[in-house]
Design goal:
By secondary structure, this protein is an alpha+beta fold. It has three helices and eleven strands, in the order αααβββββββββββ.
Length: 279
């Protein structure tokens, strides 16, 4: 409890008048009772220091239930001891609150009567927005499918060793199944795929109109170029330029060759939008 200086001074004056010493002063305290009269100019400071050292009272575990009872909420015992719930009571005098706090419940329709204790509505979850010019390979994600640090793979983004795939209601690490085709691009029809890899880099500054800049020029890989995915991964050599891919809205795809971590050669056709020159 916080006391004002006026309240403390009044208590001191009353204590002096009644006993000539501070009534709560311990005999072995820094300010012994026999020195109280000699400390008249400092009595207020002494009293404040003494009160500040007192232990704070424990919070009332039934404060929430008492507030709801006073507000007219219906409260009942969850169990009466016979595996049955008691009836709802709505009058404060009906509640002695002698049972453990966890054995009482407030009627769900009355929780609004005490806004300070009412449960906060959960914050609605929304799928994070993909980078400009991209979209996720699937949109039917839930919050539980994307723990902190995870993101969905982008559409047409190849999945790599360490990414995770949802199969039979369980997450599996890409590359641990004999049917896993590392480097295969994600599509809307494929299983949910998530990763901890960073998103591909993107240009956030909009260039001025009618003034082409280097960022507006389309980079086109050539056979023999060394490239890598914008989202990371190993260096790859461009082998061939294939025909437009009908599954990628007519984009040209490039044959890329690389050596996987296990030493096996890998090859896959990738669109230029996912590639960048290897530094």
């Amino acid at each position: 409890m916080n006391y004002t200086d006026d309240q403390i001074q009044t208590a001191i004056d009353e204590a002096i008048e009644a006993t000539s010493k501070f009534p709560f002063m311990a005999a072995d305290s820094a300010f012994a009772p026999n020195s109280w009269d000699s400390e008249a100019p400092e009595r207020l400071a002494i009293a404040r220091a003494f009160l500040a050292a007192l232990p704070k009272p424990e919070p009332d575990p039934y404060a929430r239930l008492k507030a709801y009872a006073e507000a007219g909420a219906r409260i009942r015992l969850i169990s009466t001891g016979f595996d049955e719930k008691s009836k709802w009571y709505q009058k404060p005098q009906k509640f002695a609150f002698v049972r453990p706090y966890s054995e009482y419940e407030v009627h769900p329709d009355d929780l609004h009567l005490c806004p300070e204790y009412a449960p906060k509505p959960p914050t609605p979850w929304t799928l994070p927005t993909p980078p400009t010019g991209h979209r996720w390979h699937r949109e039917d994600w839930t919050q539980g499918m994307l723990p902190d640090g995870y993101r969905p793979l982008l559409k047409d983004e190849p999945w790599l060793h360490g990414d995770e795939i949802l199969r039979y209601n369980d997450w599996h690490v890409a590359g641990q199944h004999e049917d896993d085709a590392i480097g295969s691009p994600t599509t809307k029809q494929k299983n949910h795929c998530r990763t901890r890899r960073p998103l591909p880099a993107q240009v956030n500054v909009e260039p001025a109109k009618d003034q082409p800049t280097q960022s507006q020029q389309v980079w086109t890989p050539k056979p023999g170029d060394v490239v890598r995915l914008k989202s990371g991964g190993p260096k790859m050599a461009v082998d061939t330029v294939a025909e437009p891919d009908e599954h990628r809205e007519g984009q040209l795809v490039y044959g890329c060759f690389w050596i996987a971590e296990d030493g096996r050669p890998q090859a896959f056709k990738l669109p230029a939008v996912l590639l960048q020159p290897a530094d």
